[in-house]
UniProtKB/TrEMBL annotation:
This protein's encoding gene: xylF
One Pfam family matching this protein: Abhydrolase_1
The species this protein was found in: Isoptericola dokdonensis DS-3
Single GO biological process annotation from the record: glycerolipid catabolic process
GO molecular function: 2-hydroxymuconate-semialdehyde hydrolase activity; triacylglycerol lipase activity
Superkingdom, taxonomy of origin: Bacteria
Entry protein name: 2-hydroxymuconate semialdehyde hydrolase
Amino acid sequence: MTSHDDGRRVRIGAADGEALGPERFAEQDGVRLCYQAVGAPAWPTMILIGGMGASMDWWPTDLCVALADGGRRVVRYDHRDTGRSTTGAPGDPGYTARDLAEDPLRVLDALQVDRAHLVGLSMGGGIAQELAVEHPGRVASLTLISTSAALDRSDGTPLPGPAPGLADLWGGPGPGPGEAAAVEAAVREDRLLTAGGRFDEQRTRAIARRAVHRSIDPAASANHATLAPGPPVRGALADIGAPTLVVHGDRDPLFPGHGERLAAEIPGARLLVLARTGHQVPPPHTWGRLLPAVLEHTA
C-alpha cells in the first residue's frame, strides 16, 4: 500500500497489473471509455496513451504508482475496442483513427482537466503528436516513447523500416478462440517487439492474462490496424510547441533509430535513449533513468 496527500490509499499491484483504485467511465458522444486515476486531483495530471490494440493494463501498475509517488496524478485508460471501453465487432470498428486520437480528451473532460501531460507509447505517441498540434492549449508537455513521426517531417529521407519478421506482425490471422490463445498471442508479440532487450516472460504473461480477462472481446483490438484515417491533421512536427521528451530503446526493432530523428524534428525536444530496451513500455531496469527524466520534464 502507499498513501497520497489526498488521504486515499492505493494498492500497489504486482506484475499482473492489479487494479489501481476503482475503474471509472468517461461517456461522451456515445463512446464509453474505462479509465483509472491515481494521485491527488490537485497534482499535475499525466495521461498514459497506449499502443495499438493495447488496453490500459499494459501500463504496469507499479510504474503508474512510481510516477504518482513523484507527485503526479496518473491516468491510464482503455482504448476503444480494448478492455472495458466501447467495443464493436471484430473487423467493423465504426470509427476512424482521428476519432481514436480524440479519446484522451474525452477522458480528461470526465476528470475536468483542461491541460495535461501526455505520455504516449508507439501508436499512443502518434496520438500525442496529433493532439499537440490540433489542441495545443490542452497539452502541457509530451513524452513520446517507442514511437515514430505521425506528422510531416522537414527531412524527406525515409525512416528505417522494421526488422525482418515484424512487417506482417499484425497482418496475419488472429489468435484462435479462447482466452488462452489470446494470451499466447500477446506474449509472442511482446517477445518479438522486445527483440534484444530484456524480456520478462512471467511479468508479460501476467499482464496479458489480466488484459485478456478484462476485455469485452479480445479479438476486437485488431480493429486498430484497419482504421480509416479520418480527417487529416493540420500540422507538422515543426509546429509542436509543447516541451517534448523522446524516449527510445536502443534495440527497438519496429522503429530503429526513429527516436533520434523524431527528437531532431521537434523544436527543443530532448532525447533519452534506454539501453537493452526494445519496442516496449520501458522495463523496470530502465526506471532509474526514466522516472527522474519524466518527473523533471513534467514538473
